[in-house]
Structure formats: C-alpha cells, structure tokens
Design a protein that fits this description.
By secondary structure, the protein is mainly α. Helix content is 73%, strand content 0%.
Length: 170
C-alpha cells in the first residue's frame, strides 16, 4: 500500500469514527479493488484512482443519514462527491483530474449501467463482493448479481472462490 492511501484510510477512519462496520467495509472494498485492479493489469494512474475511490466510496452515508434519514444508494451518490472532494483537498496530494474522477466514481457506485471503464467496473465489483458477504440473504443475491454485475475475470473468480460451497458448482 502506498503512503497516500494509508493516510486516506487513516483520515476516513477518523471521518467514520465510532462506526466500526463502515470502517471495516471500506477497508475490505479497498483491498478487493486493489487485488482486482492489479490482477486485471490496470495502469498505475487508474489503479491509484480506483484505490482512492474505494476508500471513500461510502463517504456519503453520514450526510445522507443526517439529511434524509436514509443511507440509500441514490442519497450516497448525491452526498458523497462533495464530501470526498473536501476530504481529498484537506489531505492533499491529489490532482484536479484525480479528484474529479474519484468524485464521479463515488457519485455513481450504486449505478450499474454505463460502467465499462475499468476503475468504475472494478469498484462496483469489489463493493458488491463485500456487500454480498455482509448481507444476510446471500445466495439469491449472488445468483442474480453474477451475470449482471461481474465482468472482470478476477471479479468472477473471487465471487466463485468466496461463495461456492464445498468446492463445487454454485
């Protein structure tokens, strides 16, 4: 992990202080995004943006709860980009182009259409893998998600490795 991402994880942990579940969630999404992006051969810049977005992808939850009493995906997509921009600018070390791309990814990470860019696709897959594990009703969601959500070979392989029982087919 590079220093910039370690500093951002530390800043996000402070941002989400008192919410161990949210902190654990973004750390897991970051780690899976890092693995998928690396194994899918992303260039260094795209990988950096992907990992940054994975760390801050749910930054809109807190303001969504405060404003709307809900952390629904659409509210997160609305409230997350300005919060992400504020945090990234406060931390420093990001270019304007990087901030704009991260804001875009944060503002669309619950939108599963027009997601063919590798950083977008992988962020969705990593978040979905973690959400599948954290949700109670996993099996039907996994079956529904596989064809609709997972497109990278690494994401498909991780999905199968995580959720196939006894080494057999789903």
């Amino acid at each position: 992990m590079n220093r910039q991402h370690a500093l951002l994880i530390d800043a996000m942990a402070s941002y989400d202080r008192g919410s161990a579940g949210r902190i654990q969630h973004f750390v897991k999404v970051h780690d899976l995004a890092a693995v998928i992006g690396t194994l899918e051969g992303l260039d260094e810049q795209t990988q950096f943006i992907l990992e940054t977005a994975a760390i801050v992808h749910d930054i809109g939850i807190r303001p969504s709860l405060e404003k709307y009493g809900s952390s629904g995906g659409k509210y997160q997509e609305l409230e997350g980009p300005p919060e992400a921009e504020r945090l990234l600018r406060q931390l420093g070390g990001y270019t304007e182009a990087q901030i704009e791309r991260v804001k875009y990814l944060v503002g669309h990470h619950h939108t599963y259409t027009n997601d063919d860019a590798p950083d977008y696709r992988i962020l969705i897959e990593a978040d979905f893998l973690v959400n599948l594990h954290e949700s109670g009703d996993r099996y039907s969601a996994i079956l529904a998600a596989e064809d609709r959500i997972f497109r990278t070979e690494t994401g498909k392989r991780l999905l199968a490795d995580m959720f196939t029982q006894n080494g057999g087919a789903k």
